[in-house]
């Protein structure tokens, strides 16, 4: 079942590419309110536990306090970029010749997702850009639209970044949907890569934080919805992106056919074993395709065993942020400081 869509306008975006059906998800204000409630419930379960696994000892805090504050702040300006992003006069320096494009996750937005990473990268000399995808302007809960439609929006945004900066390629960092299924769909089917001519690829390196790469059970909730045959009504109400990210969806089957990667693109996954949203967490890893794609899969706990960051908090975790910097610029890579983020048993990261 497809979700009703309406056209949205972005007057400052180039007109070279349009969503295939020319529509973007729109629902009454109650949907936005429920989406905000869902996000806050996920982020604010009692005792720092995920509501999806409440009651088990040692559950991670899936909503980092800075994520919570950023999400609440974004309610008043849902289309704003994160701090220091989207300077359209930024000229890439020789040290960092590729702009960094940040892609948010499901039911998030650019501000809530990237208020830690964006200013950090800009301070390190990168040109940083972050768009909002999968919802009309004015909606705080983004990332709801069908993955193929959001991929076209990503394509338009990347085209604009390349046009304004004069760069040939970008590096892309994404979270959840924005680090997995969405950019991979863009690379394979929406113009992000040319397997026959890799030099024409628009993306040099895709770095996925807690990436939704091969579908999720959402700690069993999505599997239950499938078995009860209620997934389509859930998608009708909450957005087609939810159904597209379940295990075995048509989008996932098409995307995974022929291998996980495309020629000429580097891939890095940053995965936490404490993820309770993209589950099982092993489904976040990538395998190189039959002819291409350099892949580095990193498990956060292999680097810092005591780190208990969860899905929502991962873009704010200092260990993850350091690993993103290492992936973007291996010449300056250094081991993360594991001390501040290693939460004691039964507690989430502070």
Topology:
Elements: E1 5-6, E2 24-25, H1 29-43, H2 65-74, E3 100-103, H3 110-114, H4 117-123, E4 128-130, H5 147-165, E5 170-175, H6 181-189, E6 203-209, H7 221-227, H8 231-238, H9 240-244, H10 250-256, E7 266-271, E8 294-299, H11 300-303, H12 318-328
Parallel strand pairs: 3-4, 3-5, 5-6, 6-7, 7-8
Antiparallel strand pairs: 1-2
Helix pairs in contact: 5-6
The first-to-last residue Cα distance is 41 Å
Q: What's the number of structural domains?
A: 1
Architecture per CATH nomenclature, i.e. the level-2 architecture: 3-Layer(aba) Sandwich
pLDDT < 50 stretches: 1-62, 220-228, 341-350
Q: What can be said about the biggest beta sheet?
A: 6 strands, parallel
Summarize the structure.
The chain has 350 residues and is α/β, with parallel strands linked by helices.
